[in-house]
Design a protein that fits this description.
DUF6932; globular; single chain; two-stranded antiparallel ribbon; alpha+beta
Length: 105
């Protein structure tokens, strides 16, 4: 919740959840959040939650602090143009479209 609370405090109005928490796995292992950055005060977020911008070492710092990973919707997930929001909605094995969970904050 700490990561989501930080996003909300910075003006984020919606997040999208992916990862094994959105599957039928009996014991999910992780979650991934794609956050709508269109209304976020990025300067405030950079000061209040700098880990939201830390993507090195396979996002180890985010995983340690938040138990999951956070990506801005408008960020590039797969060069040259695939945005995280689109990337989250594509099955990594089949390439087929899939659903994700959206939450208003």
């Amino acid at each position: 919740m700490q990561g989501i609370d930080a996003l909300k405090a910075a003006g984020c109005q919606a997040i999208y959840i992916d990862g094994s928490f959105c599957t039928d796995k009996e014991v999910p292992g992780d979650f991934d959040v794609c956050w709508d950055d269109s209304t976020v005060d990025l300067d405030f977020l950079l000061v209040s939650a700098p880990l939201m911008f830390e993507f090195g070492q396979a996002r180890a710092a985010q995983k340690a602090a938040y138990l999951g990973e956070f990506f801005p919707c408008s960020g590039i997930a797969a060069p040259p143009t695939t945005l995280y929001l689109d990337f989250f909605q594509c099955d990594k094995n089949s390439g087929s479209a899939k659903g994700i969970v959206g939450l208003k904050l």
